[in-house]
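[RESIDUES AND BACKBONE]
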Amino acid sequence: MATKAETYHVPVLLNESIEGLSIIPDGIYVDVTFGGGGHSREILKRLGKNGHLYSFDQDADAEKNIISDERFTFVRSNFRYLKNWMRYYGVEQIDGLLGDLGVSSHHFDDETRGFSFRFDAPLDMRMNKRAGETAADILNKSSEERLADMFFLYGELKNARRIAAAIVKARSQKAILTTQDFLNAVQPLFQREREKKDMAKLFQALRIEVNHEMNALKEMLLAATEILKPGGRLSVITYHSLEDRIVKNVMKTGNTEGNARQDFFGRFETPFTLVNNKVITPSAEEQERNPRSRSAKLRIAEKK
């Protein structure tokens, strides 16, 4: 029988991402995406009595999965505030950080949150339901230009301008408040053979905008670069090209733009050594067992 945490979220690339941390029993580790706690539990199994794990999650639903262990601290916050919270707990350096980015299976399966076009639900999409604009707020209040930029940048949709125009036209007649309202406004613009893929990109773009995901990711990775000890590991799982590009850039160059810096002698400067030059992807068995894992990529780097 599945546990509550397992039904909340099935962890992706579990063994590979944990192995990538090369855990020191008495080390200090951070899981910035607690969710159902699958990765956190695996880290705790490998920690000794003096080790400690700090796990972040901004979603109140994740708190139901909190682990009762004196070596564990749950941080109810967006991971963009990583450095602030480590300072709050008196932690100057950490031995490793793990991130399983994207959206948990819990969010996609929750019919009330508006993350999926499979259900007709209020357009919320906030990871933190206590603050910020909802997806409906953004669709109804944003300029046509802002909407077009959002769908082009975060959804990589070529017809972003036409989608934005259709939304502005639809909302002038009736507010767009539910996933079905959203679909009714844009569905005619999608070809039937690509409809599901393009709808997924559309919802992805809106979700990224609602949760400021790209900026949060950049801030977290730069903070991690600062507080990781020499020899500390960064193990990050991504699900789409936008976040993967940011992770790759930080690991290769130390900055989010991917601008390689050279020293006086022309040698490239970077705070990391790549542990895996080629991304790690789930096995065929895992992809069959957990469809969410099919787009997953794992990158691991070690602080110099």
User: Anything to note?
Assistant: The chain has a mean pLDDT of 90. The CA atoms of residues 30 and 97 lie 5 Å apart.
